[in-house]
Amino acid sequence: MTGNVNFKDYLNQQLQDPQFKQEFENETTKLESAIAVTHVRKEAGLTQRELANVSKVPQSTIARIETGANTSVDTLTKIANALGKKLTVSFS
User: Fold this and answer.
1) What count of other Cβ atoms lies within 10 Å of the Cβ of residue 22?
2) Which of 54, 40, 23, 44 is nearest to 88 (CA)?
């Protein structure tokens, strides 16, 4: 019988593996992008379909971005421009 495992402890242990850490960071970045696009879309009061229409990006692409799928800077720029926003990419 296995005991309870604290998720944070388990994650910290897994993050000691450089390959796991890189993949974790990659996924985290995609999810942060997904949250940002979802937030700015909702802030503008638009549905995915409405955002797709104004940005000339397929609604299915908007949906994939919002679920954390990888996308291009070009696509994010189209979305930002359609919303009157500026896309900023930074490395920190």
Assistant:
1) 10
2) 40
